[in-house]
Amino acid sequence: MNTGRDIAAILGSTFVTWMGQRTTAVALPLVALAGTGSAWSTGLVGGAVGLPMLTSAWWGRRLRQHLTTGRSLACVLVVQIAGLLVVPIGAVLGSVSALHLIAAGLVTGCSTALSGPGQRALLSDVCDGLGPATATKMLAWQDFAHRVTMVLAPPAAGWAVGVGGPLPLLWAEAVGVAVAAALLLSVRGTATAAVAARPVSAPALRHVLARHRDIRRAVTMSGVGGLSWFAFTLGLAILGVRTGQPGVLIAAGMTGYGLGSLAGALLAPLLVPRLPELATIATGWVVLGLMFTALPTVTSSTVSVACVASVGGFSMPLGLGALNRLITAHTSGAQRRAAFAAESLVHDGAVSIGLLLGGALIGLVGAGPTLIGAGILQIVTAVITGPWPNRPGGRRPPRDATSDDLMTPARTGTAESAPGPGPNRSDTAPAAVSRPCDNAWRSGHPAGVLERKNNK
Predict the structure, then answer these.
(1) What are the percentages of helix, strand and coil residues in the chain, rounded to 5?
(2) Which one in 22, 120, 188, 395 has a CA-CA gap of 20 to 30 Å to 387?
(3) Which pTM was predicted?
(4) How far apart, in Å, are the Cα atoms of 268 and each of 128, 306, 349?
(5) Per residue in 62-96, pLDDT tens?
(6) Could you tell me where the DSSP H helices lie in 165-246?
(7) Cβ-based neighbour number of residue 307 at 10 Å
(8) Which residues contact 336 (CB under 8 A, 6 or more apart)?
(9) pLDDT (tens digit, 9 = 90+) per residue, 348-365?
């Protein structure tokens, strides 16, 4: 097995997929508007994509535990291609209706809910034998590939629309996802041998969060950050209109944020393995909250807006890298796949809810106060949920259990040798490669602590 080739294939798949998604975000609303004549229809695909994500904790629970190989994830991308072709085929046939848009959103939403967390889990599995920090670094590089598309895709899409119209971009995304599927087919690495040798377990997302207190805290901060994201995008857009700069403030803010996040993502593989996990995550959300509160005071200068936004953008890849490190270091197998899925569900679901309700809130209290309030909410959440108050009596409970079998004492040999009815013993690694976990859940945290819908 060529591990380096597998890693390169997964990273390449991420880049190609996100490049296609970000270019289509420019083209799809134009095709929808031309086909239906209704501005309302331009958001139908995005809205339909969110529904499978919000419900994936139920319908995807068992499916995600089978996504342990490049071949299985490639099959998911094939389903995504089918969804992507609905709209361009309808346009060629002369009919793009609301039904086409909803169908495309539902199919692509289902595949996205599975493929994103699945690829991160597979990349972690492939890196497991290469040293404790390798998975953290490779996940940071994956995030870098994702963020590069933030800078490259919009201008490329704008140029392509000007040259050939929006429809060719929809075909191009389907071709791009097909290339990504082919790259994943070449991946030979998989999860641990124990996973394939025993029946698949499907832990509920809420149970994984209840058992890993630090991951639960990090996911909570991510959910609040996702819920507040609308204040940045919608808030700057509306502030621009009200200050006589329509489109200027949001362009400056998004450009600054994108460039800052690109710089942070470039440094994340070096910095994240050296930083404390939960403190780095909390600090990132505090910095983003401070950015939100500062933006309304600098709207007179687009350069200042871009500079302030770049500081928040820089902090996010470090926080996300620390979250990925937290998950990979404290889970494996089925627990790991469920943890990545829980983070995506909470964050992306919260983003959808925020965008759905945010416009009404801004209309009620104004864009500036909304930005300040959203920033304060993120800061308060990070302070309450971060690493500072989470050690009763000032001492952290010992991390002495393997990640997937939390009932097994540390250093007792392989998972098979441990007594008792562990929740997912087939995924537990041998003691020689086992990772510590946060077993503070034993102190009695309720299993239903976080059932809210779950980005950046």
Answers:
(1) 75, 0, 20
(2) 120
(3) 0.73
(4) 19, 21, 25
(5) 888 888 899 999 999 999 999 999 999 998 888 88
(6) 167-185, 193-197, 205-211, 213-242
(7) 15
(8) 121, 124, 125, 327, 328, 403, 404
(9) 888 888 887 888 898 899
